[in-house]
Specification:
251 residues; alpha/beta; Double Stranded RNA Binding Domain; Arc Repressor Mutant, subunit A; 3 domains; four-stranded mixed β-sheet; two-stranded parallel sheet; 10 helices; 45% helix; 12% strand
Length: 251
Amino acid sequence: MRCCDVERLWDEMREGVEPRREHVLAHLRGCTVCQEIYRENEGIAYCLTCLPPVDPPDLLVPKILEHIKAAVKIETPDSIAAIDSPIGRLFIAFRHSGITAIALDRGEGEEAVFARLQRRLGRGLIPSQAPQWVGDTVAVFFRTHTTDLGKVDITELSPFEQSALRAAATIPPGEVRSYGWIAESIGQPTAARAVGRAMARNPVPLLYPCHRVVDANGAMHQYAYGVELKARILEMEGYHPEAVLTGSKRR
């Protein structure tokens, strides 16, 4: 039930015209619609005044704050720096929690690389100088083909993606494993295809070595920078495809 005259009064108030009190009272005395609404609201207001005061539960405020924190997610930009490597120029995104993304410069230009990483991360990037720990993490990988995973942040990935990448990180340098092997190792033996998608979406290639994951026949595919580069990285690590014939290097 609505009153057109009251809606007009509200419009006047929004436009900065304040109705005179006598105009409101005069309208209320003559409008049966508003009188009925007034009686209903007056009854509700009276009932509310009759309720006893109730102290809020002790945990109410912390729960409200937790809800606000979860619902209103303020994303701060990551820093990003360029580092030269044996396979080309790498752009490394990082924050205080660790390295969050790596992209190889394929010749498309810095702005294109930044845009690609911003879409992947869902937040902005601030060009910066690489701090010592970032440079050291990348250098150690190319020297030893191992990574201090405490310097890499994948916490924003889904639980399945995190599990798949952590399983890939257990593959020794110079060896490969199948998507099915990853699926079985994380307790989801029928999820080999999903593992393939998780490897393809890996935001921190090299450091989480998705290049060590192949199909059941040893074929190399689903690498963001192409099969040739995947084979090159594996060769740098000491992988020899012919060894898979004996079953010594692939499972």
